[in-house]
Specification:
The protein is α+β, with helices and mostly antiparallel strands and 255 residues long. The protein is built from 9 helices and 6 strands, in the order βαβαββααβαβαααα. Strand 3 and strand 4 form a beta hairpin.
Length: 255
């Protein structure tokens, strides 16, 4: 099982994208949505069957559309959660309802959960970033790489941004500052950037949150090998932790 993600800039674009997916033959039970919700929507219960208010909650996600019109059956699993640092979200579809656990913690805290749903834990932070910016994340589960590539093409045609592109744009926005920070330590950023960046991004993983480098080192080494014990990785991890702490502090002040 492999999951393909697309990010839509608006609710209207997501509605069109979901309709496009259905038009290309994607089954309802393969389509999942993560979207910013509302304070009211956050009180909708989680259930596998239709509940009072579900149609309204889905409508809040996609600008007044009903669940059926965006390509998901009204009876799809719906989770409404308040995610720390993001706010209320609505997760529709079996995977959408499972990706955030109780208390709004993203999956992936235990190593064995990696790829449980065909999702790399490396992508979870970027789903959160998209939601934080008011964007809609559409996730489609596929059986193999051939089907996954066809879904990527369908999402591209519907105007979705690929998660890899969002990730690269995010790093480009940080790169100059990180190069300067690394130079302070006498490092060659051009040579070490890939390792430094891996350390930076690993600090943002669910498995790393609230844990110091030494506490998470064994877990990260199991995921990425001995590169995690190198100086570029360690310095990148430290900067990633500082970045995440500062971001969360800004969110708390704005709340």
């Amino acid at each position: 099982m492999k999951t393909v993600a697309g990010i839509f800039a608006s609710r209207e674009a997501a509605t069109r994208g979901l309709q496009h997916l259905r038009g290309t033959g994607v089954r309802d039970d393969r389509i999942n949505v993560l979207a910013p919700g509302t304070a009211d929507a956050a009180r909708v219960p989680v259930d596998d069957a239709e509940q009072p208010g579900i149609g309204t909650a889905i409508g809040a996600v996609v600008g007044g559309a009903t669940g059926a019109s965006i390509g998901l059956p009204i009876g799809a699993a719906i989770a409404s959660l308040v995610i720390p640092g993001i706010g209320p979200i609505i997760a529709a579809g079996a995977l959408g309802a499972a990706i955030f656990g109780a208390g709004g913690a993203a999956i992936g805290h235990r190593l064995e959960e990696n790829l449980t749903y065909g999702i790399s834990r490396d992508e979870l932070f970027f789903y959160e970033e998209a939601l934080r910016k008011g964007r809609i994340v559409v996730l489609v589960q596929t059986d193999d790489e051939s089907e996954a590539e066809a879904i990527r093409a369908a999402l591209d045609a519907a105007g979705a941004e690929r998660i890899d592109a969002a990730r690269e744009a995010w790093w480009i926005g940080l790169r100059d500052a990180e190069a300067q920070a690394y130079a302070v330590h006498g490092g060659d950023f051009a040579r070490d950037e890939s390792i430094y960046r891996r350390g930076f991004e690993c600090a943002l993983l669910p498995v790393s949150r609230g844990r110091a480098y030494d506490e998470v080192l064994d877990d990260l080494t199991e995921l990425h090998g001995d590169v995690c014990r190198t100086e570029p990785f360690r310095l990148g991890f430290a900067r990633g932790r500082a970045y995440d702490d500062a971001r969360r502090a800004r969110i708390d002040r704005a709340a």
